[in-house]
Amino acid sequence: MNAELHETLGPRAAVWKRLHAALMPDYTRQACAYWCATVLTGGAVLAHALHILSESELLAWVQIAAGALMAMLAGFFPFRVPRSKTSFTAGEIFIFLLLLVHGPAAATLAAAGEALVGSWRTSKRWTSRIVSPATASIAMFWAGSLLHVVVDFLQSFALASAAVLLVATTCCALLYFLLTPRPSRRCRI
User: Fold this and answer.
1) What burial class does residue 114 get, using C-beta atoms within 10 Å of its C-beta: 0-12 exposed, 13-18 middle, 19+ buried?
2) 27, 34 Cβ separation under 8 angstroms
3) Residue 84 — φ and ψ, nearest 5°?
4) Hey, where are the domains in the chain?
5) Which fold has domain 30-185?
6) Cβ–Cβ < 8 Å for 144, 100
């Protein structure tokens, strides 16, 4: 039984080793596993967000598409921080606007699009270009969902004023920025 399993997995393992050596030569096994898990999780989160948005009306889809497109276009024009490798884009304005108006699913879609543009602009590595939208999807979905849970909780106690919403959104933005690697400080996994 063990010999049959080895014969079955042997060619697959050899193909995986060759693929890993050709495409991710500087990734350790653990880094490769982390990359794969992040990409699969990000893809699942993005698919879930699209499923949620599939029930939206046409006008909402137009607004979401316009917001995502604006976030992606802003990704082409970064603001560089002087004497630093760090840059920011105005795309987050549209991402958080979508979060506040249409919820975490819409913001997740826009964040993935903006991260895709940013990674194509700053990196030649296909692994970075794939993992960046996945990471942005995960980070925005969790940060945005947390924001909506907090706002709903505060509304149940009649504490949801404009000032409280601003503070909660700022905390959500900080969480999103902490969870998402920026293109200029992107690291090799």
Assistant:
1) buried
2) no
3) -150, 160
4) 30-185
5) Arp2/3 complex 21 kDa subunit ARPC3 (1.10.1760)
6) no
Residue 89's nearest CA partner among 99, 77, 81 is 77
Residue with tokens 């006008």: 59
Q: Which residues make beta-bridge pairs with 87? A: 80
Cβ–Cβ < 8 Å for 89, 79: yes
CA-based max dimension of the chain: 67
Task: Return the closest-CA partner of residue 175 out of 127, 122, 107, 114.
Answer: 107
Residue range 73-111, pLDDT digits in tens: 998 888 888 887 777 788 999 999 999 999 999 999 999
- Secondary structure of the chain as H, E, C letters: CHHHHHHHHHHHHHHHHHHHHHHCCCCCHHHHHHHHHHHHHHHHHHHHHHHHHCCCCHHHHHHHHHHHHHHHHHCCCCEECCCCCCEECCHHHHHHHHHHHHCHHHHHHHHHHHHHHHHHHHCCCHHHHHHHHHHHHHHHHHHHHHHHHHHHHHHHCCCCCHHHHHHHHHHHHHHHHHHCCCHHHCCCC
Handedness of CA 164, 167, 169, 171 (dihedral sign): negative
Q: pLDDT tens for residues 29-43?
A: 888 888 889 999 999
**Residue bearing tokens 């987050």:** 92
